[in-house]
Fold these 3 entries.
Entry 1:
Amino acid sequence: MITISLCLIVKNEEQTLDRCLSSVAKLVDEIIIVDTGSTDLTKTIAKKYTEKLYDFKWIQDFAAARNYAFSQATKDYILWLDADDVVKEEDAIRFKVLKDTLDPSVDSVTMKYHLGFDSFGNVTSSNRRNRLVKRSKQFRWIGAVHEYLEVGGTIINSDVAVTHSSIHHDSDRNLNIYEQRYTNGEQFSPRDLYYFANELLDHRMYERAITFYEKFLDTKEGWIEDNISACGKLSDCYHGLNNKQKELESALRSFEYDSPRAEFCCRIGYHFLQKDQINNAIFWYNTATKLERNANSWGFQNLSCSTWLPHLQLCVCYDRIGNYQLAYEHNEEARKYRSDDPSIIQNKTYLESILHKVEENVQGEPL
């Protein structure tokens, strides 16, 4: 059986660190915690779990801090997490099986990263990350902000998920780092351009964000998933600027990079629904329901768009044109995912009432 070092970098994580470490402590053989300047009880909490607590002077570079943490590890494999991540009980069971059975020839194991949930516990946002890597390969982190782990060799996809459960977020930190680097005249990579644009979008600086998304796409060197995501985020920018035509064009632009994704079909369907072009809306929402979801996709996925959402919207569309049977059937499909959703329950009651009246009228007609 392999051995595992857990590596974290932390700063002022007293609200989340205990939750994170308690969820994974029994799964790993060593815990490495690198503190970049905490002023709260983070270090006190860390010492409950490990003696391997190190200080690292913050130099505005996340990759440097993570690489330092990796350099302290001594076990066969390195698992990395953030302090606001947790391994849920069901995933801890899967993780234990993975640890017991992993072939030592594997260089990296990817795990799902669940980033968002709806009020019914369904995952709404997810991607994959290289999460468990062989220490002897000396894989390195790259990028001062939105850093990534550069890996190679034999990589397998696991069914283990890490769940992101943030309590607080330093909303200006990453933007300020990018602004400083840009002001200093640093040459941005395509990846930097993309993530800088994301930070601008998050701060509702729509016009600047558009500029940097366009710069990113113009390089023609971006990862395909980032290219597709940039089209969606351009749509978000134009939505914020109330430019509906550009919002639609940006969504359609995503088809230049790959076959249609459910997220974009739903976005386009909503555009036509808002314009009361119901048949067009039905086409795009129906398309979303028929697209196969890639469970191993590395890009961000809004899972609502490939599960309940297009069916609920089709219910609305068919109701508007008086096809109550199809409206009911799609509402029932949505109910499979959100059985306690008040709006879906209300739709069910409303449509059953209409269908019952239609049936009574048919039965009452003379032969």
Entry 2:
Amino acid sequence: MSALSIKGLTKHYSADDKALTNVTLNVEAGEVIGLIGPSGAGKSTLIRCINRLTEPTSGEVNFQGVNLVGLNRSSLKQSRRQIGMIFQEYALIERLTVMENVLSGRLGYVPFLRSLMRRFPGSDIQRAYALLDRVGLSEHVNKRADALSGGQRQRVGIARALSQQPSLLLIDEPTAALDPKTARQIMRLISDICQEQQLPAIINIHDVNLAKRFVDRIVGLKAGEVVFDGTPEQLNEDQLTRIYGEEDWSSDEAAPEPPTPNFGLVLEPAV
């Protein structure tokens, strides 16, 4: 059984505003899928419909044997524990430390009063330290989030999502505000972690070259419909023209690959 199965997912705001139409795709364990397409193609809407931050008009999102579209609020909250979300704008609490932001990923597992006092089990704290080491931020544990660079903030967002011990990652434009070198480092980090933990991920990404370099499979959206679904090698000039329109794609060369940084600890798969 696929880690995630989407069937006929549709989001129409009106007859003239069709964000998604009949999107169907499966995501396997450990598979990293890159969503590409022009602005307004429905990439962010698709990600938000999967965890129902946006309510679909129709269709199914089957995750761990449950159709998320049919769940009530309480049951949806339970399922969302297993879905890590990484946002373009980081969504950190600026006045809190790096460690406190990472531990906020455990709020769904901690009783309400303890969460108000930010009292977490020792096992959660130990895992947060391990995650921060894994994303290269072990020296910034007690630094406030508003003192970090964009790349560092994105790493905190990754660690926070992983602190949930998720079974699925949804990632919305993780490199949009980053310089090219940092963007490659972030995409490499996400790819490596997903491979280590056999963690499936869907990434909304604008940079086609980054997608071709770091994801296993590419899904192209245009006007809310899937117009391409294949490997990076299958994404040729004709397919890019079908997704984006006419352009000289032959001149779009990838930049040389920089040396791979080593951020230390490799985490065991979540159980």
Entry 3:
Amino acid sequence: MSTFTIFLALIVVVAFLLIVVIMVQNPKGGGLSSSFGGGGSQQLGGVKKTTDFLDKSTWTLATIMLVLILVSNVAINRTGTAESKAIEQINTQQPAPVAPAMPAQTNENTETPSDSN
């Protein structure tokens, strides 16, 4: 098992946890905290502490995911880089024949200024 596979598994787990934490929250201030009675801050355990926990866990999981993604980029095995099939076909095709360079033509019939006298 490569290190990239381990990072990929960790990214999937963190993404699942992040989805769960975000889905538990309610954008209007309800969510999990309102399901415990929704009264004031007089409850045991405190509703405010629940929302603070969900907020902090969201930011923590998002930060962990960002770090895992950046570190997994380093762990990618680049020794056997796979190119696209189109590039492989271009590299394996025979090169087009190139016309041979023509030598410079010399005119033996033309007179030079010294020969004209």
